[in-house]
Write a structure and sequence with these properties.
This protein has nine helices and 21 strands. It is α+β, with helices and mostly antiparallel strands and 456 residues long. A hairpin with a 2-residue loop joins strand 13 and strand 14 (195-204). Helix 2 (94-113) packs across helix 3 (130-142) and helix 5 runs antiparallel to helix 7 (282-307). Bound molecules: adenosine monophosphate (AMP). Adenosine monophosphate binds at residues 17-20, 180-181, 208-210, 247, 250-251, 254, 321-323, 325-326, 348. Adenosine monophosphate (AMP) binds next to helix 5 and helix 6.
Length: 456
């Protein structure tokens, strides 16, 4: 193993996020995230257990729904403020709480690498004020790091995609769309060689995937209450379970068209347990969250205007943040910008990997680009719908978008044209045109034995 321990010790890259944080190191020329309890992400949550011990990460998050008074989440929102945050009987500054998270990351890295880790690059949002940046740097120092650089998150993400070789010197305009658990921001960067400049940055510090969970949890609650005639409004435990179930369902809906959401013993009536068991389909879910996703469009347009650019002048659209895995996000952006976003680097990991690349460069290490296998084409099928205002059998539905990392599994629901129909011919195309005749036919197959009795 050759990690970046030349010229004065290992330099790690850290994404100190509102919802999750992560730490990376370059090994054998390749940036990698260090596993923490077997996962690349550490929930940015600090808690106090009933026995008075400090909890960080998953354990803190799990108890947080039941004991909010003994849990601090989203401390990043308070960075730079002169406040004391209660944690049980104790009081902590935001810098101290962030330092607890950073110390946990440091410990994970030292355990993994088997040696001390002191130097770090830490990322912050482009919109952070000077006080917020200083507080982040201080948190790093309290945790025992020498903070080599405080780097913008969109800049870090764009570094993952920066080209190497002769073409790297040409100027690129990059839009970074970052939708995390609790915050949204969009930045436009100008990149040339080693220099990256943030031209504009806008966003909403109270919009993210957690809001998707909330609308879905409320919908599940309403379904349960309507079905059983029982209110869950006062039942904190049941609501906490629904919120967790909503997040799991949401994540599954990014891949599958239908998800069965089940919660046994969610409530009771006359001593009888009541269960939740409903099917959620992606289209219905998308209608629930559409207003939230639409809200991000204004910021994108504002950022473009401020950068003095038209959408077609962008060279690259990059997605960052777990919530950008929601297919609706990619669809809306493609509609707005006329270009498919890059999907090759994991949106949860792009910032930390970019920070790690930067850290390796500071340590003087040669680094390779992050390589993943992606499909260079979009694939889809034909369906009967409306094309140019007329009914047509040549409508194209894209199912696997270009640049998706491989392997991939995607599902989409289609209905038969006639009642009782038992067979369908599925045509497969490569391309992006809404009319299948403009795409490349790859083949077809027959699905037989459909159940004519199946309910819609
Ligand atoms: P981040 O703050 O970038 O870690 O993003 C966390 C948010 O992304 C949370 O709201 C997660 O529930 C959400 N998320 C993670 N994976 C997915 C997925 N596959 N589809 C939709 N949302 C996701």
């Amino acid at each position: 193993m050759s990690s970046n321990d030349v010229s004065g010790g290992i330099v790690v890259g850290i994404d100190l996020g509102t919802t999750n944080s992560s730490i990376g190191v370059t090994m054998n020329g390749q940036p990698v995230l260090i596993p923490i309890e077997g996962q690349p992400l550490l929930p940015s949550v600090v808690g106090l257990a009933p026995d008075g011990s400090l909890l960080v990460g998953r354990a803190a998050r799990n108890q947080g729904v039941l004991y909010p008074e003994r849990t601090i989440r989203s401390v990043k929102r308070r960075m730079g403020e002169d406040v004391r945050l209660p944690l049980g009987e104790r009081q902590h500054t935001p810098v101290e709480v962030s330092a607890i998270i950073l110390r946990q990351l440091k410990l994970a890295a030292e355990t993994y690498l088997g040696q001390p880790v002191a130097r770090a690059v830490i990322t912050v949002p482009a919109y952070f004020s000077d006080a917020q940046r200083t507080a982040t740097r201080e948190a790093g120092e309290v945790a025992g790091f020498v903070v080599e650089r405080v780097l913008h998150e969109p800049t870090a993400a764009a570094l993952c995609y920066a080209g190497e070789g002769p073409g790297a010197a040409t100027e690129r305009k990059v839009l970074v769309y970052d939708l995390g658990g609790g915050t949204f921001d969009v930045s436009i960067l100008r990149q040339q060689g080693e220099v990256t400049e943030v031209l504009a940055s806008h966003g909403d510090t109270h919009l993210g995937g957690d809001d998707f969970d909330q609308v879905l949890a409320r919908w599940l609650q309403q379904r349960f209450e309507a079905q059983h005639g029982v209110s869950l409004r006062e039942d904190r435990r049941a609501l906490a379970r629904l919120s967790r179930l909503a997040e799991e369902t949401k994540i599954q809906l990014s891949r599958d068209s239908y998800v069965r959401a089940i919660a046994e013993d969610l409530g009771e009536q006359d001593g009888r347990p009541l269960h939740l068991d409903v099917e959620v389909d992606r289209h219905g879910y998308e209608e629930l969250i559409r207003p939230l996703v639409e809200r991000t469009k204004d910021s994108v347009q504002l950022a473009l205007r401020e950068a003095g650019l038209l959408a077609r002048q962008l060279d690259e659209v990059i997605l960052v943040g777990g919530a950008t895995r929601t297919p609706l996000v990619g669809e809306l952006l493609q509609g707005l910008l006329g270009r498919a976003p890059r999907l090759d680097v994991d949106p949860d990991q792009a910032v930390a990997l970019g920070a790690t690349l930067h850290a390796a460069r500071l340590a003087g290490l040669p680094v390779q680009q992050i390589l993943v296998d992606v499909t260079p084409f979009s694939f889809g099928t034909a369906y009967f719908g409306v094309l140019d205002g007329r009914p047509s059998t040549h409508c194209y539905k894209q199912i696997v978008p270009r640049n998706s990392p491989l392997p991939i599994r995607q599902t989409e629901v289609f209905f038969t044209m006639q009642d009782g129909q038992r067979r369908v011919q599925v045509e497969v195309y490569q391309g992006e045109h809404p009319d299948t005749r403009q795409n490349i036919p790859l083949g077809h197959f027959l699905v037989e034995g459909l159940d004519p009795e199946a309910p819609e």
